[in-house]
């Protein structure tokens, strides 16, 4: 009986994960809110002129564009940038769906605890699994991804700027010091 309960709980978690991932990813909710408009530095003045001046009638000062900036070294083709964005959104979708599924599973376990359903050792095992996995996600995985996205604009690649990478690692270490 406990094996059947464990398998059914894992199936519920899997179904919640799949539902969350398909709903979030296929409805493009992540893509709509996580992508920013990328305009190359050489075209920023034309963009500002066409959008802000012509559309809204605003007169703004032109942006001084430095030719030898570190952002100008973006020589990757647009297709690989799109592939990186797709992979980044997929990882974000998986992490979000895992957190959503485990949170729903934790609520289900709390309801089982209140109603005194299932055996005590089965509930304890499921609680331990769910809470440990949620803690792994919320303490290690998500802060690492958030700090990386904020500082380096990538999930795991620290090759763009060494200074930003060092700051991201320092913030991650500070996060662990705060938790300790």
Automatic annotation (TrEMBL):
Lineage, opening ranks: Eukaryota, Fungi, Dikarya, Ascomycota, Saccharomycotina
Annotated organism of origin: Spathaspora passalidarum (strain NRRL Y-27907 / 11-Y1)
Protein name: Uncharacterized protein
Domain of life the protein comes from: Eukaryota
InterPro entries noted in UniProt: GPHR/GTG
Record key words, sorted: Membrane, Transmembrane, Transmembrane helix
Transmembrane feature ranges: 6-24, 90-111, 131-152, 164-179
Signal peptide: none
């Amino acid at each position: 009986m406990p094996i059947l309960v464990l398998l059914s709980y894992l199936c519920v978690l899997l179904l919640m994960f799949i539902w969350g991932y398909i709903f979030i990813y296929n409805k493009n909710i992540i893509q709509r809110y996580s992508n920013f408009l990328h305009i190359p530095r050489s075209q920023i003045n034309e963009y500002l002129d066409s959008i802000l001046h012509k559309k809204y009638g605003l007169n703004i000062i032109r942006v001084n564009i430095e030719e030898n900036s570190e952002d100008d070294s973006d020589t990757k083709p647009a297709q690989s940038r799109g592939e990186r964005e797709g992979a980044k959104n997929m990882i974000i979708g998986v992490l979000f769906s895992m957190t959503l599924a485990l949170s729903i599973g934790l609520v289900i376990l709390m309801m089982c605890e209140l109603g005194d359903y299932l055996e005590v050792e089965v509930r304890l095992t499921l609680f331990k699994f769910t809470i440990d996995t949620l803690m792994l996600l919320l303490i290690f995985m998500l802060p690492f991804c958030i700090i990386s996205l904020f500082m380096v604009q990538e999930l795991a690649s620290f090759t763009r700027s060494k200074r930003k990478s060092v700051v991201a690692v320092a913030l991650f270490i500070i996060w662990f010091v705060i938790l300790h």
